[in-house]
Amino acid sequence: MNILQINSSARSTGSESTRLADAIVAKLQAANAGAVVTRRDLAANPHPVLDEAALQALFTPADQRSAEQAARVALDDALIAQVQAADAIVIGAPMYNFGITVQLKAWFDAIARAGVTFKYGATGPVGLVTGKKVYVAIARGGFHRDGPSDTQLPHLKMFLAFLGMTDVQFVYAEGMGMGPEAVAKAQAQADADINAVLV
């Protein structure tokens, strides 16, 4: 099994979403002898944002790109290759200001490429990244699950499905900003949920 772990917290230490992602990966490794894990920390190694230069590089035919353009496209190619090679993808996704982090958005922008990870068919877009099991570890300072302030979950579900990834499990740790008792309760519940999801 090839496991791809994406950590998108801005924190290098003390991130709950990363802790949960680590726990999910550990369970997957325990259940799959010889599993190979690739970890990408988007805070330690941020991917460049999708700007005008990147768009120009992507829309320039490969044989006409400058060296700088080819190098920029190659950065996205590397992320796409990791996703395509993975059997399981584990994403640590904290909520920042009611949404995903800028680091995760940059990763999403990099792996969404027409004709490679999705295509447009007669009835609309068709995801080309299929056969993957995806686990998303969500950490939040407050309580948003199933409420109107949870704009993060619909975004994650929609984007993953857009690329063809529909077998997705979510694990939550909410109330992380509500004091020690709330943190302990959230962590215990999240750990129990991981054990239930990864039996």
Automatic annotation (TrEMBL):
What keywords are annotated for this sequence in UniProt?
A: Flavoprotein, FMN, NAD, Oxidoreductase
- Flavodoxin-like fold domain boundaries: 1-196
Residues the record lists as binding FMN: 9, 15-17, 95-98
> What remark does the entry make about the cofactor?
Binds 1 FMN per subunit.
Report the GO molecular function annotations.
electron transfer activity; FMN binding; oxidoreductase activity, acting on NAD(P)H as acceptor; oxidoreductase activity, acting on NAD(P)H, quinone or similar compound as acceptor
Q: Does the keyword GTP-binding apply?
A: no
Q: Which cofactor does it need?
A: FMN
Query: EC annotation?
Result: 1.6.5.-, 1.7.1.17
Assembly: Homodimer.
Q: Which HAMAP family match?
A: Azoreductase_type1 (MF_01216)
What is the name listed in the Swiss-Prot or TrEMBL entry for this protein?
FMN dependent NADH:quinone oxidoreductase
Q: Which organism is it from?
A: Duganella phyllosphaerae
Its lineage opens with: Bacteria, Pseudomonadati, Pseudomonadota, Betaproteobacteria, Burkholderiales
By which gene is this protein encoded?
azoR_2
